[in-house]
From TrEMBL:
Swiss-Prot/TrEMBL keywords: DNA-binding
Gene3D superfamilies named in the record: 1.10.1660.10
Alphabetized SMART domains for the sequence: HTH_MERR
InterPro entries named among the record's database cross-references: DNA-bd_dom_put_sf, MerR-type_HTH_dom, MerR_fam
One Pfam family linked to the record: MerR_1
Biased composition, class Acidic residues, residue ranges: 144-155
Domain HTH merR-type: 9-78
Start and end residues of each stretch annotated as Disordered: 141-160
Protein name, as recorded: Transcriptional regulator
GO molecular function, one term: DNA binding
Length: 257
């Protein structure tokens, strides 16, 4: 395994901080084969890259779904060995799509721990604009949060604030903080995705409703259980290919100009 060209390699401490886990956890996953070995650099220091970050994010998502460590090991063994960080992110998106909406109330310190980085006031503003994070009503210093930390600062500083966070969207929102797009463009893109997703869901619902209108309740439930994952996978795959084609044409056109 090699780190991607142009990417600054991470030490194990930096990887753990980026992923929001402990160094001990990273080493444990490595010993179980859940993470590929690092690239050994000068002074025998292990270097980690985007693939490690993406795999840790996928493992975290699988754990959030309630999978045991043995089940996660089986899942990862079934994946192709040459998956890129982008491919792993797609797998995580599919897994996360089955997660129920979950809003946790956490302290500022816990929010930053889950984000794997410090969050500036501007970062929080962008996360709130994307509806990833919301200020919890009445959440101030010294209050014990749902995560049980109760680590609010007694001086009432910003680290004592409480926030409502969408656990399923937090990592995506944090990644968008580093995307070189304005907040206006990100919000406009979110609006486009929501509008077209709802339109597609409505059209498919009408199509399937006509198909099952004359069937009994058991057949309807069976069809729904089978179609849900198939439709999600089909939509994701189709959109991914369409977006790749659009971006490739745009980049090629820009290069020609």
């Amino acid at each position: 395994m090699t780190t991607d060209a142009g990417q600054t390699p991470l030490t194990i401490d930096e990887l753990a901080a980026r992923a929001g886990v402990t160094v001990r956890t990273v080493r444990f996953y490595g010993s179980r084969g859940l993470l590929p070995p690092p690239v050994i650099g000068p002074r025998r220091v292990g270097h980690y890259g985007p693939e490690h970050v993406a795999r840790l994010a996928l493992i975290e998502e699988l754990q959030r779904q309630g999978m045991t460590l043995a089940a996660i090991e089986r899942y990862l063994r079934q994946l192709p060995a040459d998956l890129t960080p982008h491919d792993l992110a797609i797998h995580r998106a599919v897994v996360a799509s089955w997660a129920p909406d979950a809003m946790d109330t956490v302290s500022r310190r816990e929010l930053e721990r889950r984000a794997g980085r410090s969050l500036t006031a501007d970062d929080l503003e962008r996360l709130m604009a994307m509806n990833v994070v919301m200020a919890a009503q009445g959440g101030r210093a010294g209050e014990e949060c749902a995560d049980g930390s109760g680590d609010g600062d007694s001086d009432g500083s910003e680290h004592g604030d409480a926030f409502r966070v969408d656990a399923g969207l937090l990592r995506l929102g944090v990644e968008l903080l580093d995307v070189p797009l304005s907040q206006e463009v990100i919000l406009a893109a979110r609006k486009v995705l929501i509008e077209h997703s709802r339109a597609a869901a409505h059209a498919l619902s009408q199509l399937f409703r006509g198909e099952v209108a004359e069937r009994n309740a058991q057949d309807v439930r069976s069809l729904s259980a089978h179609m849900h994952p198939l439709v999600v996978q089909a939509l994701l795959t189709t959109f991914q290919r369409s977006l790749r084609e659009e971006l490739s044409g745009w980049v090629s056109g820009s290069g020609a100009d």
